[in-house]
Amino acid sequence: MPDSFPSDRIFEMTLNVTAISKNIVTQASDRRFTNLKTGKTEADEANKALVFSCADALLAITFTGIGSVNLGCVGKSVDQWLAEVIRDEGLCELRVEKSLPIIAEKATEWFETFPEEWDKRHAVILAGWQELKKEEITACLWIISNFSPSRTTYSKRFNIERLSTNKPLIIAMPNTKAIGRIDRRQLKAELRNSKTVDEIEKSVVQLIRRVASKASGVGKSCMSIAISSTKQARATYYSKDNLISSYGPYFLWYYGGRNYCVGESNVMPGGGYNVAFGEPGTVSLVVGGTPSIVSPIEILTKFKFSFAEAKHKVNDQVLKGILVTGLQFKPMPENKT
Q1: 269 CA to centre of own chain
Q2: What range does the domain containing 186 cover?
């Protein structure tokens, strides 16, 4: 099996940036899929984001490397595969430290089925907030990968690494040479001076777009997940132009004996909207700032909705089970500087 590839292939991978500040974890990724054989863009609006609520944490998930797999007549995107693993393995029922080895094991098994000649370097990045003890919450960041950004080699097994979040942190995957010291210094300074989530997201998205102007494998449309220390998550779509469309990531949570999953949404043309997912009987929809309670059926028909029965013996009283999310549409002018 080949285990080494030219270093410039790193430019053909998705770029995602995770920024951890005092009260907000922000994770943004571009939405471009590139064919590694031809170098041509296959999709410019591919989802690479998930929001994962488990027993003791609320996390944003993204990935870099392989975006979709087509083997024979069977095709599947990596975000769909991740969502199905989390749902079917009941990972929303578990504490995060118990769920990560399952993701790593399933990724190792899946990637072993891919052709030998493929570039199999891949990384899954999870970031958010974890409850260590009652009333004690901390920022957290894990990378599940089969390669090191500093090398062009990869291994057959996916390994788990937890990174320290004791101070403000910026992680870019892969560690592309397109992000220089000046870009990193500028982003750190902007994060220190940011007063709102919007300002933080704008800085991260603009960094991705600066890289996109130099690396053809990186797109300018972005999805950002912002998770607060109060365990609320907001997903924001940043259009590369002024096209009016709203996209949403996958959302996964547990409630009342079931693992729920909604995703693949493109549902509210014409402006921003907020959706609160949690107990299925209390899903709410906010459009234009005016709250309106509607039935779950009305909302979930706008999304790809599925669930799996509980897989683990858990105490429902321990699980929060309520995932509050806001989806917003943000066409943002490109940074011309």
Answers
A1: 22
A2: 7-331
